[in-house]
Amino acid sequence: MRPDSRFSEVHLDPYPRCDAVEAWAWVWDYADFRFLSAHRDTWPAGWTHTAPGAGHSTAILITGGGAVCQVGDRTVSARPGDVVWSSENTPYTLRVRSPEFEAVRVHFTARVAGARCLLALLGFPPALRDLGARDEFRELVRLQHHAPGGWRQRATALIASLVLRVVHERPDALAPTPTVRDARALRWVCSALRLAEQSGPRVGVNDLARAMACSASHLRRVFRACLGVSPHQWLLDRRLTVAAELLVETEEPVESVARKVGYEGLSHFHRNFKHRFGCTPAEYRARARPGSVAGKQPG
Questions:
Q1: CA–CA dist 258, 23 (Å, integer)
Q2: For the segment 127-176, what is each residue's pLDDT rounded down to a tens digit?
Q3: What sections of 170-230 are H helices per DSSP?
Q4: Which of 33, 44, 170, 267 has CA 20 to 30 A from 275's CA?
């Protein structure tokens, strides 16, 4: 069968290059995305919406009207077609300045090895124009509304595609902040985090230090410099995150979940879990799975 030569005749434009962004190409080996929610909003003229910094990122597509957006310490005017970006723990405010304002808000996480916010690391701008993302935002709302099988996986893939589109097509709009030295240290830490992910929830700081061929004190120093937390705190948070996922995705009793993530005593697990999520394991399961038998188990 003779191959179709028509495609080979098509000119493929190169993607724009940006050395500051190219230096971070390695992060995609450690990138984790998760879709959380999508909402369609309609607000009257003069309305002000303020969101404090949270543990997730936000992308807002303006679909009608206009608003003044304050993202962190930067202020921009947004019009239909613009996408406003707010990274984790960055507060934002929308002040509606025209009637019939409409927008789609999408909450998600985009992290490097589950630890650093990818948008903050790459220096995403507070707003981008003419991204051509209406279909993707509409599909995210549609997926959440109808919830077909595999919808979260598809929604997560759409979020990853949107972030990558900005990186590939608008790299000059990004402003990565860490220095080259910081980048090398973070890359080393990411290797340690990936190793921890592969080692099971019971891995400890000394185990991780031995695997990385360094001292525990060096591991602590680099962790704090790159992530702002100790390796012990990071490993504890990871164990509790795994526990939260097991509570939602399985029918296992709370005591069994606690043992799986390395807790010998249930009271210690309860105390740490409540400090991390603001509720007991049983309450967390009940909220995530309302009406389920699992949600009614004693904790």
A1: 41
A2: 999 889 999 999 999 999 999 999 989 999 999 999 999 999 999 999 98
A3: 180-198, 205-211, 216-227
A4: 33
Q: What is the mean pLDDT of the chain?
A: 85
CA-nearest of 91, 88, 92, 90 to 116 is 88
Q: 248 pLDDT exceeds 60?
A: yes
- Alpha carbons 203 and 93: distance in angstroms, whole number: 41
Give all strands (DSSP E) within 97-240, no chain letters. Answer: 101-112, 116-117, 127-128
What six digits make up the tokens of 154?
A: 């598809």
Domains, in order of start, for the chain: 19-173 (2.60.120.280), 180-296 (1.10.10.60)
CA 67 to chain centre: 25
Distance CA 108, CA 180 (A): 28
On whether the CB atoms of residues 185 and 226 are closer than 8 A, the answer is yes
